[in-house]
Amino acid sequence: MYKKILFFVSVVLVFSSCEKEFLEPAIENNRDLSDIQDEPGFALGLLYNGYTRLPGGWSFSEMATDDAVSSDEDNNYSNMATGQWAENFNPVDQWQNSFAAIQYLNLMLSKADTVTYAENPAVNQMFKDRTKGEVYGLRAYFMHRLLQAHGGMAGGQLLGVPIMLEPQDASTDFSSLQRATFEEGIQQIYSDIEKAIELLPLDYEDIGNQDGIPAKYVNMGAGVNDYNRVLGKTNRLRMTERVALGIRSRAALLAASPAFNQGTSTTWADAANYAADVLDRNGGDGGLDPDGLTWYNDGGVIDNLAAGLNPPEILWRANMPGPSSTLEEQLYPPSLFGDGLVNPTQNLVNAFPMANGYPIDHPDSGYDPANPYVNRDPRLTAFIVVNGSQMGPFDETIITAVDGGTIDGLNIVESSTRTGYYLRKLLREDVNLDPQSVNQQRHINPLIRYTEIYLNYAEAANEAWGPMGTGGNSYSAYDVIRAIRERAGLSANGGDLYLESIKGDQDAMRELIRNERRLELSFEGFRFWDLRRWNEDLSEMAFGDRIEDGNHEVISVEPRLYSDYMIYGPIPYSEVLKFGLIQNMGW
């Protein structure tokens, strides 16, 4: 499907000669839309522009948190975390990309009912409904990204961003487009999601008989081939009802969270139920993919994935490009010919419990500071390269000790680790970067994983009904966390004693759920935003582990210099200047 996108984006660029700032007229002095009725390819180019603006890789914003630092001290995230974050320097800005996507989506929506996709009335109507549903779902997705990155307290109230429901052009009164409240933005997301659900199938799959065709299309004379043409499996990876429900779960979790629940109507129960709407379509608490922990490194699945299909762990993904070694070039240690860019911190390593499920600071954990990697949660060495780990296509031993005699040691060369750790998660370790025998592999990039939605439910359900409450659903926060930790291999033989000990304690369960989210979603772009929506301390020092003569010493690596108001991101300085938008407090 995304090969088609590249073609249709080129069509769009015919009438959009340069990338626009958010409130600039979009199509003046370019081809107008008067011919769109008879050119469905022209119309779909507007929609596909929204798809091409979806995230296409990993940002590693964790390097601006307590979970990681960059081996490159001039990295934008390092600069951001150490005091340079400003309204005119914002590496996590979502404004321009998201509003540009919304502009094209609104153009598409304004013309969607006028386009002729097919002479057959039923087929034509299915195309119209599908494309409008896609627009509504994508518009909700980008609005969530805007609210997450730019919503905040301003003038004594929680504000969002301008709500753009019509395409902007030279006649637009830009002075009237001011920031809506955060609540209005959330409600707009919900409204768009409801429309998407009404118009889209749960999934794009071929049907074998007319029983699978909605009555409104049957009444128009649609047949099986007609349905499969428009709503069948050739359209996989597009927006669906299932994806729209996942986006709603994200938005509701944000709106119910401590930093964003001021003046908003979304409750924790709402957020839990919206997550349950997704999980109930995935087998409930029993639907967690047992092989989903290392979804990124399962070459047997990734390399043989049929067109448009998802592995069981992934709800929505981008199209997979051809084989590549770019990620490994960024993240492999220098001895494996990588740049060692992302260095997990001791802070994150300490967050992994023991194999018996107890946190390392619990008296029953059995943690030995002199042997800190022994009997730990299996996810630790699945996600992070520690001293003595084996890595790469030939299982080479990575030594991070300063006296280990390799370039992988702490601060040995420019690309060596600054913390004593390298990142393993997300990598295909069958990639070989040796210049004498380089190879590449395919990588999968999820936009939404089911584990995220399970964790959304656990967090919201615990806040709404406590650890064991279900609120009318068939599973509790405890049930979900038990499933996640069982999959991770914690207490596989003796039961999860720590989880059992806190299942009646809402506060302890909250701490555990947040920690499970930190581990399970690590390096997927969540930690930066989670700390903020939880209104947590942002300025914890990033620590590392210095190993010499076999002794471990915790060292300070990089400060995190955030002010309290930085739980909310800024409105871009250029937009404040041009249009008089109210800036968030403190910026």
From TrEMBL:
KW Membrane (keyword) present: yes
Compartments in which it is found: Cell outer membrane
Domain RagB/SusD: 332-587
InterPro entries: SusD-like_N (IPR033985), SusD_RagB_dom (IPR012944), TPR-like_helical_dom_sf (IPR011990)
Keywords attached to this entry: Cell outer membrane, Membrane, Signal
GO cellular component: cell outer membrane
Pfam families, sorted: SusD-like_3, SusD_RagB
Main localization category: membrane
Residue stretches making up the SusD-like N-terminal domain: 66-206
Similarity annotation: Belongs to the SusD family.
UniProt protein name: RagB/SusD family nutrient uptake outer membrane protein
Origin species: Salinimicrobium profundisediminis
